[in-house]
Design goal:
The chain is mainly α and 116 residues long. Helix content is 62%, strand content 0%. The chain is built from 6 helices and no strands. It has helices at residues 12-22, 26-29, 40-49, 55-65, 73-88, 94-113. It starts with 11 loop residues before the first helix and ends with a helix.
Length: 116
Amino acid sequence: MSVALANPPTDPFVIDVFRRSLGELWFQVAPLCQGVDDPTVLDATLRARADSEGSHLVHELEALLVGWPHYDSAQRAVLTAAVAYVAGTVPGDHEAIVVDGDKVIDAAVRSILRSS
């Protein structure tokens, strides 16, 4: 089953690596792959979660966010999805925050940094 992205990014390879890395989790994350031009929204979202459960995930995403000016639209869509997923994870659901969040971030790193 395929999921259509609202604003398809320019490099399908990046998205394909992200999709394959996520496995079944892709169906939850795919709708979050959106184009964002201004990373300050993502930064604010991460700062709001910095002291919460899974804060190590936030720090990893902040490290990825530093490279924003160098990313293409596909890499930005992947990072936006990872931030949205981790920030939107239900507080108190430790397994979803740590296990699924780790998987999303690992997939984001794999697709963003290894495609550069």
